[in-house]
Fold:
Amino acid sequence: MRNIVFILSVTLMGVSFVSAAPITTNTALPVSEGELLLRAQAKYIRSTGDAGAANRELTVWAAPTVLVFGASEKIALFGIFPWLDKSLDLNTPLGRVNRGDSGLGDFRFLARYTLGQWDKAGETLRLAPFVGVKIPTGNDNAQDSLGFLPAPLQLGSGSWDPMIGTVFTWQKLAWQFDSSLSYKFNTAANGYQFGDEARLDLSFQYRLWPRELGSGVPGFLYGVVESNLIWRDRDRLSAAGGIDSGGKVWYLAPGIQYVTERWILETAMQLPVVQKLNGSALENDYIITAGLRFWF
Structure:
């Protein structure tokens, strides 16, 4: 369930020229001073295969909208506004029921600083740390006919959660490599604390068409392969301590992008290669992402 956190936190994108960019992770490429970037995505998450009597089946739709502003040559500011729809089907003593909610989730604000850049003909390298905070704007006390929804089904956590990280980008004319290392500190609210989360993300984009650069080309087609390695600590109830949740997950994500001078159209599918979760935590089957970004 909480894998949605990392899904909503991987939107630190921004480019100021024709370039590919990661789909599920971050880039250190700059946003020009005074430039505004808008990114909209739709994500579909499906989790089944519960071996327990509850036979849980989880479906999540997420639609994060990201606004990026180039505050200066080196500083970029990010605001992330997520819309969520969470739906859980499970067996209960009353029969099979559906629980969930939909609406706006928790807002995130981040600031990224370009610490180093190394440019030469046809090549650039960038290193950019970032800091941020998740602000509890989503509803965290929704209820249905069975009572209050469990914390993972709420739209918001009710907590203020800081995060830190750094991104590195190496770009050449035919390809681009991006890596991101980040950590999110989750705090407690309403007697519940989601586990801290650490992740290492890698992305490689290669230009498939045109193979040779020249004038008159309307856009560029890139093939993308990404890797997402995530560790998350157990969630904790104030009365019960650690509960079945968290663990280690490794995704591989093939994708494709069409890149023009002012916009990018993209899609990718995250497939779990390894899922070592704690106890009866529900595994993800796959995550599908489609998105559009353009800048002014």
